[in-house]
Amino acid sequence: MKLTKIHHIAIICSDYETSKTFYTEILGLSIIQEKYRKDRDSYKLDLAVNGEYQIELFSFPGSPNRLSYPEAVGLRHLAFEVDSVEETKQELEEKGIGVEVIRTDETTGKRFTFFSDPDGLPIELYEK
Question: Which residues contact 38 (CB under 8 A, 6 or more apart)?
């Protein structure tokens, strides 16, 4: 077996318009394609990070909430690499997003921090 890269990450949101705004206007991801699937009463939004297709944002009616933060079984968090954790933290805070204190990874010496999407999905910023 030869896995070549992660193709995409799928995220299910509770409020499509709020999450769409968060991922496109707050985080600045670009929209590749948006599709409403009438048979599922569901939107699927394909998003790019720095020009590369990476995230699918779904809305499904009646999806259950995340059980705990951040240690639920399954996907623990989504991490984005940034040039400066401090500058990105400041940009998010200026947009009204609460961001945790910047910490340093004991293994790599790199700085990182966490914030949440509108549904409480933990998102990490990890310095390049």
Answer: none
H helix intervals, the chain: 16-21, 85-94
Dump pLDDT digits (tens) for 59-104: 988 887 767 665 666 667 899 999 999 999 999 999 999 999 999 9
Distances (CA, A) of 90 to 21, 30, 69, 98, 102: 19, 21, 23, 10, 11
pTM: 0.85
Burial of 78 (C-beta count, 10 Å sphere; 0-12/13-18/19+)? middle
